[in-house]
Amino acid sequence: MKILALDTSNHPMSVALVEDLQLKATTTLNTVRNHSIYVLPTIDDLMQKVAWQPQDLDRIVVAKGPGSYTGIRIAVTLAKTLAKTLNCPLVGISSLAAIAAGLPAVTTGLMVPFFDARRGFVFAGQYAYQAGQLTAQAADQHWAWADLLASLPTDRPVYLLGALTPKLRQAAPTLPANVTVLPDAAMVSTFALAKLGAQATPVADVDAFVPDYLRITEAEANWQKTHPGQVSADYVQEV
Amino acid sequence: MATPLYLLAFESSCDETSVAVIKDGTEILSNIIATQIASHQRFGGVVPEVASRHHIEQITKCTTEALSQAGIGYDDLAGVAVTYGPGLVGSLLIGVTAAKAIAWAHQLPLIPVNHMAGHIYAARYVAAFQYPMMALLVSGGHTELVYMPREHEYQIIGETRDDAVGEAYDKIGRVLGINYPAGKTVDEWAHQGHDTFNFPRAMVQEANLDFSFSGLKSAFINTVHNADQRGEQLNQYDLAASFQAAVVDILAEKTMKALAQYPVKQLVLAGGVAANSGVRARLQADLARLHPQTELLLAPLKLCGDNAAMIGAAGYVNYLHGDRAGWDLNAVPGLSFDRITPLS
Ligand SMILES: [Zn+2]
């Protein structure tokens, strides 16, 4: 099975081509912000190097968020459009699960991939290996940093997978002895992403596939406050 | 007979997701438009993050429908045209990314299109273009006079120095209690009232070809507020009529001035505000009187708003001129034609 895996959900941008669970080619850029410019040329370049045609792809795996809103939209739009136009199965994987999957399956303890969501909040997930399978221990969430820390277990090792911004560090100057911060582990491995995606069930309705933002927009949050009880209707109409 | 040339076209610069299939740059085989207006009406205007989220919900569905309605497969296509600016960056990126994905997957040429050129080319579905020509582009984001000495060449000779005309409509509409977008209702009210307030016509006397609507907008708002403070209720139809009369005067007089400096074979009226009946009627009358040798091309009403058919028509011309984008094509929110210093 030939898999294209891509992630543009945060600052790094990464693409991998994986065949039968073997990594054929991968590129990660960690210096650019504009994923829109680099992601397709990177895919094109790697595909040429391994001599694959777009039609050869058997599966597209994308990190579907949470993440930078613009970032996850670029990868998800690219992935869903490619899947649709190539009639190729599509799999969306949590960006946080993809980070956790970068740690080896022998890791014991709780893996907590996170990244800064500003204003004292983070996006974070809680994952652990159970019988060699990466398993979510809690849903990915938009957490107040303090609430996330308070929720962590005290009786087993906890790995915080992400970089502490000065603000986050300030809010938690000392961490319990069982908690270790692994900033370098925050980089999504698209090889690991592809392997997760190889096992997952493809998206049933590609048209309806959207990023997992984990937050409604500020405008909608405010609107809901002033319009209690009004559920989101179908706001987009074909004319 | 040459073989027909089919382009798939994408437009997502603001709050409409649109995909079209165009034959030979002149025939619309499909033009799917999913509008988000009902969503943004909740907020009184377009919220960029909400717009981007809606675009990604719609993009592949619209593409499938456009192709199936046209009865065209990917193998039939000669290229993929896409709006890459100007517009909201998050919105533009959805169309640009989808267009790139399809062009790459089927190894088709990718044709970048300026959204404003697209608006001009909405009129291409009315008649063939003859050069030199001029376009008055009026929308919620733009108000500009574009001179086209020849095909594929666009020069801004006049533009708004502050608000776009559609923006002014929305702002005074809010004062009148009309929900976004206000243009259509203000236009309807204007026909039921009279120009009794005589609002200022900014810059009409000046030699340049630029527009200004902020003074008009302020005069309107002040008039309503002062009346409110006196506990007086002004006639909303007369207010609308007075506002629209000023807008129409400004647009028509600057356009006639431009035509005197730049004689052209055709004048195109395009953009969302080109649907305004007052503007259409006035340009028709003034042109017949002052520049009878210039043909007026009014973009069809249903193509005045944002749509991919217009992008396909402009994209066809770009295609013939060899415009091609690489896989690194990015959204350019501030994309603009070159401004040239008008003759005086
Ligand atoms: Zn427009």
TrEMBL record, chain A:
GO terms for biological process: tRNA threonylcarbamoyladenosine modification. GO terms for cellular component: cytosol. InterPro entries: ATPase_NBD, Gcp-like_dom, T6A_TsaB. Residues 32-171 form the Gcp-like domain. It holds the Pfam family TsaD. This is Peptidase M22. It comes from Limosilactobacillus ingluviei. The lineage of its organism: Bacteria, Bacillati, Bacillota, Bacilli, Lactobacillales.
Automatic annotation (TrEMBL), chain B:
Its EC number is 2.3.1.234. It catalyses: L-threonylcarbamoyladenylate + adenosine(37) in tRNA = N(6)-L-threonylcarbamoyladenosine(37) in tRNA + AMP + H(+). It is found in: Cytoplasm. Keywords: Acyltransferase, Cytoplasm, Iron, Metal-binding, Transferase, tRNA processing. It comes from Limosilactobacillus ingluviei DSM 15946. The keyword Transferase applies. Fe cation binds at H115, H119, D306. It comes from the Bacteria. Belongs to the KAE1 / TsaD family. Substrate binds at L137, V138, S139, G140, G141, D170, G183, D187, N276. This is tRNA N6-adenosine threonylcarbamoyltransferase. Binds 1 Fe(2+) ion per subunit. One of its GO terms (molecular function) is iron ion binding.
